[in-house]
Write a structure and sequence with these properties.
With 192 residues, the chain is of the alpha/beta class. It is built from six helices and six strands; from the N terminus they run βαβααβαββαβα. It starts with a strand and ends with a helix.
Length: 192
């Protein structure tokens, strides 16, 4: 069993993000869900991103870094959409991280330096999600996987919605989310 830190998306720490964390806990993992928005919740991705911009993305990243300060080094980072930023930052810059699960977003690793040797990553997103596929995250994840720097598992799901794994949202896709959870649990077993 491993310690996991799971960073929420732009809508905040929703019931659906908490439910995802609970699924991992049920499998025996210790899951931390820091609230980078200090209790604020938003109805749309655009509102949440505007809030993050108002805070400053550097503040969001620093809150992510601070959230893991007291956690064990042997940690797996996970993030949904906007939460991929702190998840990826921590995975790339904190010694001892065992892996990263990046859902519905991917940032070219050069944004945070280089990818650490031996730290595997899973990337999940819908094939026609306007944010994940349309904004180039899917292509960047494919390019990164082709570089062979580390083990990269890229999983795409049919569909065109964003935040499909958050059970508290209208965009929730139960079948795709169930498969995502199964794949994440398998990943955690391998790196644990």
């Amino acid at each position: 069993m491993v310690d996991v830190v799971c960073f929420h998306h732009a809508l905040g720490l929703t019931r659906g993000v908490r439910a995802f964390a609970d699924r991992l806990r049920e499998a025996g993992h210790t899951v931390h869900t820091p609230d980078l928005f200090e209790g604020r919740l938003f109805d749309t991705v655009e509102e949440g991103v505007a809030h993050a911009q108002g805070l400053g993305f550097s503040t969001v990243l620093e809150r992510g870094r601070e959230a893991v300060a007291g956690l064990p080094e042997a940690l797996v980072t996970a993030g949904f959409s906007l939460g991929v930023l702190p998840a990826q930052l921590v995975a790339q810059t904190r010694p001892g991280v065992r892996g990263a699960v990046l859902m519905e977003s991917f940032v070219p690793p050069s944004e945070f330096g280089s990818w650490p040797e031996g730290v595997p990553v899973q990337v999940h997103g819908m094939t026609d999600d306007p944010f994940f596929a349309g904004d180039g995250d899917l292509a960047a994840a494919r390019d990164f996987g082709a570089e062979g720097v580390t083990e990269v598992e890229l999983f795409t799901y049919p569909g065109d919605v964003h935040l499909f794994a958050d059970s508290s949202l209208a965009t929730y896709d139960e079948a795709a989310a169930g498969l995502l959870v199964d794949r994440v649990l398998g990943f955690l077993e391998r790196v644990g």
